[in-house]
Amino acid sequence: MLKHLDSCTPLCNGLLPSFGNLISMFWRFRIASGHLGWASALLLCILSSSVRGQAESEDPNVLFEPREYSDGQGAVLKYRLLKPANFSETRAYPLVIFLHGAGERGDDNEAQLKHGLKEFCRATRREAYPCYVLAPQCPKEQKWADVDWSKTPVEHPPQISQVLRLTMAVVDAMLDDAAINKNRVYITGLSMGGYGTWDAMTRRPELFAAAVPICGGGDPHTAPMIEHIPIACYHGDADRVVPIENSRAMIEALKECGATPRFIEYPDVGHDSWSRTYADDELFKWMFAQRRQPQ
Fold it and tell me: Could you tell me the pTM of the whole model?
């Protein structure tokens, strides 16, 4: 049985009064009861400043809430969650799944915020594309996809990795409980997360409205399973960590299936092809324009 460990914070906005609403309720109660002591006023100022500071921040460490998820059998996934700006209970929002690279593995539930996610925290982006962003952290010695990184082409194993299984369990819980638009679930990842993005598409081909794998690689034999998914793939042609041939092989396999993936090769760019990719407004415009198509 799946167990959500974050009992203090609701899975989605709207399940409990927001922090701002709690402040308003507290203030109205104090006025009605006539209890306006200095301690109450001080507490109100502190709470109001905290809410205002979070609203104005663009720091992923501030905006992404730390959470944990357990499968009830001893396996725990640490993750961070960004909620939509200016949340409305009358709307359903897109969900973006972000898979980090190998260097951010661990158990501090913080390192996965290092690359890419600051672009999702920019005030202009949050206003233009309000969404949930799920950022799980892969433990050390594990991978999003249990593949041999030294092997080209990539071969996916029959079984999903444990950390990706837990991640998809969180996604399923959010689809059930949060205000998610089920036709607008997107996945992206860099380096090890790029491998994970290709792998996740094959595990749940019916789920994703679009995918953005960056400097990773997938199994060309799985192309017929995912040819219906809009894909934008990015890779630097001077990458010496993950060979660009891994991305090229996937793109060619998809084209042979009749798909029309977007493939951007950055000339003379090494492994870090994610910085310019996530900084590109056109990527956000393209990704959030995609909708899942009935199969």
Answer: 0.84
